[in-house]
TrEMBL record:
Region named Disordered: 565-585
InterPro entries for the chain: GerMN, LpqB_C, LpqB_N
Organism encoding this protein: Planobispora siamensis
Domain GerMN span(s) in chain numbering: 196-282
Name listed for the protein in its UniProt record: GerMN domain-containing protein
Amino acid sequence: MVMATAACSVIPTGPGDVAVDDAGSGDPLDPPYARVIAMPPSPDWTPKEVVAGFQAAMASTGDSGHAVARQYLTASFLKKWDPSGEVMVYRQSALDGGESEEDTKETRVTLKGTVTGTIGQDGLYRPGDDELNEPFTLVKESAGWRIAGGHEGLMLSEADVRRAYRLVDLYFLDSKRRGLVIDQVQLPVNPVSTRAKTTVERLLEGPSSSLAGAAQTAFPPDIKLIDVTTENSRVVVNLSKGVTGSDNIAAMSAQLAGTLSELAGGSSVEVRVNGEPYYGDSALVVDAQAQLKFDPWMTPRGMQLFYMQGGALRQLDKDNVGQPVAGAAGDPAKAEGRIGLLARPAVSGHTLRQAAVLSDDRRSVSVAPLTPDGQWREWVTGNDLVTPNWDRYGSLWTVDRPGPQSSIVLRHYYDEEKQQVRPYRVAASDLDTVEVTALKVARDGVHVAVVVRNAMGEDEVKIGTVIGEGAASRIANLRTVVNAGDKQTIKDIAWKDGKSLYVLTGKSELLEASLTAGPKPLVSYPRMESITALDDVLLAGVKDDDGNRQVVYRNVPGWEPWVKDENGSTGFVPDGPSSPVFPLG
């Protein structure tokens, strides 16, 4: 029987009812959560009630070994059922069947609805949208009806997942160990541990499969977490061993500060080893903002917007008035056929700003430094190229399409020593035999988004990772985040941050997509042509009914014109502002 306390918000009165109480210590490192209390089966329950009770028992956060849920199973099915593997997440529409005569010994109950996702053993949530039609076979035993067959793993409703899991951001390192990469995972609530401790323990386990081969960690594989506590307004992380070398210590500190930032609430973090000060005679105290100092691209503030107008690249000043950039890129007289009126520029993120544009015939990409003496130089030639994109380390990405349903991913570096551009083909087996219409690397330098068009002319969006450099570059771990269908075309994509992506469809619909959630519609603007983003700032190039253009800014819940002319007007004008872009956008 369930022991119900005064804190319970739901008291079980029958099968399928869920007992929920408030658990957690109230410590900032262990915020309260709704603990589900499992209810064992009763001998007089019907088959449908047994299945409903089993569903509720699987969701119990107070029964980590699922001992109560196992009571619903026959001895033979118990040997097959494994709650430690991948978790199916569903939205229920019906629970059908289970009717039986008094002397019936076997029956079937079917759970119907939608499979909305899965949670892997590494915590990676993969959204889904598949029909759920899961039959449970039940047999009548001396103690009542028991489940003899069905799904052989854990099944949780969306509401169960909201109660039993927490979406956390884990911070890892890129391949150069100079930047940070966020890995979002679903972390199960552990009733015998604090959330901070389970979060750091998961950090020490390393990246999820979505970052396989693409991200690193400063923590050695044999390191263990002893505890995470608070002391003198600090978060104290006690490890079994430390790391050596200033670079590794800085990287470890950034990973801890970022991962604990939500729970620490601005408090600094002290790292200890076996309860002793990190350096023996002195403490290692990590600033609460260490992750931002380690990797400035985590919060790239102060970035100015670029856009096209009159065949030239312009840059907004602090008053939202545009000025031509320095050099040939800002002078339409020096376009030399490289920049069309509606060209889609890409602007680099390193100290020496460079602009890259695709020619009108899509057969070449030219680059010009944004300096007074900067001149256009052809970097890439091909058959049918896509709009270029820079990564954080100064390499230029594009895709050549030599024929139908054929794509070659290209990465170009400028060799300062030899004063020449060095091209490399990027291995991407999943993209070789499809038509790629867009490719953009996120500002973390690891995540990459591609738009793929199938033979029916329908577009879908995939997110993957960049692994390696130069000739060893490859794209892997690709997963679909926006499905193709209904002749859907994608006009543009723009990374919001290292976790989510804005998607602009051919119908001017705007979506937000990621690896950890299905695409979410956003309020859009009519006749959107392109988008760019920087964290929560989202802008779009649009035109009105008469073909006049302007750049608009998303000011929730609506949009407003953004670029001013010399008179301070933000009106739509012929050949007005178009193709807005932030560095690395």
